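Here is the promised in-class demo. Please do not try to memorize the tokens; focus on the logic of going from shape to residues.
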């Protein structure tokens, strides 16, 4: 299971939001590339980058900052936020981003998802942000009528192999995760799931790890590592432990 430190960018700075509320922002660094370097030095093998301004505006905004992160660290990064065209995807991949995350486009433009999946394969994944069971879009400002589970099924039909599933009600709260909920999405859809929202302790990492064979392939860490409540190196160590009995039977 891969641990993804999150770097959320707003106005060129590394920030964290509380439950996706842009009015409840904490700035952790004026230089996101320095945060990227810090997480890499602690053992991170992959970074999760979100262009918050892009998510709200509908097109990538913090491209210069993303470039600086790519120039600073030698580990792969995934980027989401305002990616709503094939050109957006191509430009980011050409820049050196390992994979891109489609969010609101999954609701607004399902044809794009199919086209992107066909053209770019597993370099495209989909982020599904759930608020009380419904999908939130446009920087979490709006809530659609479609359920998160139904959208996940549709994404699988469109060829998407991995989704990031975020529980907005827990995001930034350090209230713990409902591992079974993430696992149920993976089991029902057959799609690999990266869990996001609420991780507060090593116990949460262990709880998610139990469902690795059911399709939980990763977890995104945000506030817990920024506040020091969770040690990133320890989380990575637990997540990477080989399960006993996985001998190829």
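The designed amino acids, position by position:
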């Amino acid at each position: 299971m891969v641990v993804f430190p999150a770097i959320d960018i707003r106005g060129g700075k590394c920030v964290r939001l509380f439950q996706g509320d842009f009015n409840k922002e904490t700035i952790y660094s004026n230089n996101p590339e320095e945060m990227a370097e810090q997480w890499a030095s602690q053992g991170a093998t992959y970074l999760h980058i979100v262009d918050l301004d892009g998510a709200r505006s509908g097109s990538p905004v913090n491209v210069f900052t993303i470039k600086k992160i790519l120039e600073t660290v030698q580990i792969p990064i995934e980027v989401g936020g305002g990616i709503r065209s094939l050109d957006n995807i191509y430009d980011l991949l050409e820049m050196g981003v390992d994979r891109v995350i489609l969010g609101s486009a999954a609701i607004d433009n399902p044809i794009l998802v199919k086209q992107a999946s066909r053209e770019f394969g597993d370099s495209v994944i989909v982020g599904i942000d759930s608020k009380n069971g419904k999908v939130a879009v446009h920087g979490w400002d709006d809530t659609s009528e479609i359920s998160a589970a139904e959208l996940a099924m549709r994404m699988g039909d469109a060829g998407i192999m991995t989704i990031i599933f975020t529980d907005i009600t827990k995001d930034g709260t350090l209230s713990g995760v409902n591992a079974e909920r993430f696992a149920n999405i993976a089991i029902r859809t057959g799609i690999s799931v990266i869990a996001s929202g609420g991780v507060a302790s090593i116990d949460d990492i262990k709880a998610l790890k139990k469902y690795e064979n059911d399709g939980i392939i990763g977890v995104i860490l945000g506030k817990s590592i920024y506040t020091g409540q969770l040690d990133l190196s320890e989380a990575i160590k637990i997540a990477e432990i080989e399960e006993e009995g996985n001998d190829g039977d």
